[in-house]
């Protein structure tokens, strides 16, 4: 073998073995993780608050999408407020969220409109109905982020509704143990594992930080209900405000609402269980019944076919 080829092959083998060994160390050994190999930033102000957002986009494409979004943001205050409210319901509270969303709509529309002509260029042929199909794909691409946003809102609101009984139970335990309302909110919301999973805990923590920053408690509570867009949370907020105004015991109010929330969650589960057989009818008819008839009547049909052939 040529010495130069042997040296090059040896270099490739050594680099490959080193790379694989590095991947194994980073994934399997807890003491050698990727985050520990990087430079640690000095923690001057502690953890970053959820009430703060990045001032500048980190990637070039993000800056481009933001500029395009700012150019096409609706001038109508009502439409802009509606979009901002829906983005808040989906969990995007950053002031730049609206610009990113509108930029994504424009980018999706351009991608949809150009996909059909590009397909024709790749196939080196003229695509039929080029203008009409491109226009349809452009419109679909423009409204695709709206469909995604609606799905995101439904999923987040469902998670919030399911988390309401557990949060009320925890608040009730904290209040009956002697904590004040603000201390109970802080104790329930400030849970790292819950903050990663439950959007309701994130909203409670945001409300608690707003109160600490000087916002009136009643105003922060009402903003909590508006940010979630969930009727159960609005009822809970109204109960908190009424208890604070009238001076009634907060523990009893939490106990009543926790029990009511648990009953409603159980009723929702029962409703889904009752609807499950009805929803299974259509898959059964369209997918299982043809296979069943084929298996049950297949031998008989084959026998009939053979009988007709013999008669001929």
* Percent range of helical residues: over 70%
Tell me what portion of residues adopts beta-strand conformation: under 5%
- Rounded to an integer in angstroms, the radius of gyration calculated over CA atoms is 30 Å
Q: Major sheet: size, sense and barrel closure?
A: none
Mean pLDDT: 79
Order of helical and strand elements: HHHHHHHHHHHHH
Q: How does this structure look, described?
A:
By secondary structure, the chain is mainly alpha-helical. Among the domains are: 60-153; 157-272. It has 13 helices and no strands. α9 (199-212) runs antiparallel to α10 (217-228). The chain is extended.
Quick summary of this structure?
The protein has 312 residues and is mainly alpha-helical. The protein has helices spanning 3-28, 34-37, 60-72, 77-89, 97-123, 130-176, 181-189, 192-197, 199-212, 217-228, 231-246, 250-279, 281-311.
What are the salient characteristics of this protein?
312 residues; mainly alpha; 13 helices; 0% strand; extended
């Amino acid at each position: 073998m040529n010495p130069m080829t042997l040296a090059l092959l040896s270099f490739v083998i050594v680099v490959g073995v080193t790379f694989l060994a590095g991947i194994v160390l980073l994934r399997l050994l807890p003491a050698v993780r990727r985050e520990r190999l990087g430079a640690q930033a000095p923690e001057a102000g502690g953890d970053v608050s959820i009430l703060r957002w990045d001032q500048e986009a980190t990637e070039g494409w993000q800056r481009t999408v933001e500029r395009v979004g700012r150019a096409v943001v609706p001038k109508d205050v009502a439409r802009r407020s509606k979009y901002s409210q829906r983005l808040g319901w989906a969990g995007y509270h950053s002031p730049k969220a609206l610009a990113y969303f509108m930029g994504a709509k424009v980018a999706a529309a351009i991608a949809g409109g150009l996909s059909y002509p590009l397909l024709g260029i790749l196939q080196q042929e003229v695509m039929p109905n080029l203008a009409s199909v491109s226009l349809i794909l452009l419109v679909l691409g423009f409204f695709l982020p709206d469909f995604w946003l609606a799905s995101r809102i439904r999923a987040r609101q469902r998670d919030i509704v399911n988390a309401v009984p557990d949060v009320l139970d925890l608040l009730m335990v904290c209040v009956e143990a002697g904590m004040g309302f603000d201390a109970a909110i802080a104790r329930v919301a400030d849970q790292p594992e819950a903050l990663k999973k439950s959007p309701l805990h994130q909203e409670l923590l945001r409300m608690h930080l707003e109160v600490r920053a000087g916002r009136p408690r009643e105003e922060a509570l009402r903003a909590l209900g508006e940010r979630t867009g969930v009727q159960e949370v609005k009822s809970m907020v109204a109960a908190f405000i009424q208890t604070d105004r009238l001076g009634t015991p907060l523990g009893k109010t939490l106990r009543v609402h926790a029990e009511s929330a648990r009953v409603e969650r159980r009723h929702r589960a029962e409703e889904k269980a009752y609807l499950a057989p009805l929803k299974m009818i259509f898959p059964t008819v369209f997918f299982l019944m043809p296979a069943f008839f084929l298996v049950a009547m297949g031998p008989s049909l084959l026998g009939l076919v053979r009988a007709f052939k013999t008669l001929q």
